[in-house]
Amino acid sequence: MPVDLGSRSWEQLFARHVAGDTGDEITAILDQAGSTDAIALSGGFPHPDTFPRAALAESFPRVIGDPAALQYGPTAGLPGLRDWFAGRLGAQEGVRPGDGELMITSGGMEGLGLITRCLLDAGDRVVVEGPTFFGALVGFQRAQAQVDAVPVDSEGLDVPALERLLRERPGAAPKLVYVIPDHQNPTGLSLSVERRRELVALARRYGMLIVEDVAYRELGFDGELRPSLWALAPDVVAQVGTFAKTFTPGIRMGWIAAPAPLIAQLVRAKQNTDQCTGALGQLLLEDYGRSGRFDQGIAFSRTFYRARRDLMTAALGAHLPEEMRFTRPGGGFFSWVTAPGHVDTVALQARALAQKVTYVPGRAFYPDARGGNELRLAFSRVPDEKISEGVRKLAGVLAQAAGLRGAR
Questions:
Q1: Where does the record place the Aminotransferase class I/classII large domain (predicted)?
Q2: What is the pLDDT of residues 210-260, one digit of tens each?
Q3: What value does the mean pLDDT take over residues 324-338?
Q4: C-alpha span between 217 and 211 (Å, rounded)
Q5: Which structural domains are found in the chain, ordered by start?
Q6: How far apart are the C-alpha atoms of 312 and 307, rounded to whole Å?
Q7: For residue 18, what are the contacts with CB-CB under 8 A and spacing of at least 6?
Q8: How far apart are CA 43 and CA 364, in angstroms?
Q9: Which helix (H) or strand (E) holds 326?
Q10: pTM of the prediction?
Q11: What is the C-alpha separation between 279 and 281, in angstroms, rounded?
């Protein structure tokens, strides 16, 4: 039923930071994922085969009897879960969060949203990777921040380029640098150890906070675990993580490990969003973690997704024209394709959908006009037998648009 607002339009009622929004990539990806007839290479969804259904079925009867299970909980998270996870971080990273340095969030996106809300005023400078995760990018832009994108290469964020940017623009230093150092979304690339140390040094020199998104950190395929930025410099790094890829996305949980003054401010902000992360999910995760199955599940997921990565990169090698490039990720869910400069991957979406295949155009991952000839492919949830078929169809669309032959 239409709503009569009288003399005001909806656009006039919307806050300035959302008025004029024309696209919503996250909503589009979620909608595409529900399609039954298209090969969805667009959404970075965990595969249901990696969800710990049996363990959760065993945990639930134990957990549901806890008086805390169905009640409000502390805003920072239940003490038991924080204790278990702080210990796990300590064992894995060599640094354990101190008192007041760890909080539980309702997913990684809430963590990023809380940091944005607490740190950024209109006009503040932010540096991101170019390309970067569009969910974070949209949040920074809606906060009316000035966003600069620094290129990435085979070693991850181009830290020397970031240093040049800081020298050449001597005004107010960026408040934060947002980086995904491990198996980055969208490229699958990882930041080298040397550059990690250089980035930390820059942050200390210029007084910047590094926001380290570790969504895919534990899903490496070669067994290498480079030092996290938070472990290298817990005084200048806020680590934002999610359990969506290592537990289940349906139970919305993540974490932030950061200096105590920042955590205190983030907890105050969370009191005005969802007040507290769901206690039942926290108890289930703690029970799963203390059982020892958490690490077993991650080991299974690494093997599972590595096989998917191999299918995807083999298909790209077989079907993409040789003039096009793609990344072979060392972990995570994604490969990044670069076509010749005259190819418009936004315009090609409809043609690809007509061939029953979807992807995410590269422009969604930049704060400016870059990325028009790039695109992201996800291999995490597509059935094995559909990966090669989807890549073959997409390669044909790209080759036709580029005026190239369709295979290497």
A1: 40-394
A2: 999 999 999 999 988 999 999 999 999 999 999 999 999 999 999 999 999
A3: 98
A4: 14
A5: 10-51+296-402 (3.90.1150.10), 68-293 (3.40.640.10)
A6: 9
A7: 142
A8: 13
A9: strand 325-326
A10: 0.94
A11: 5
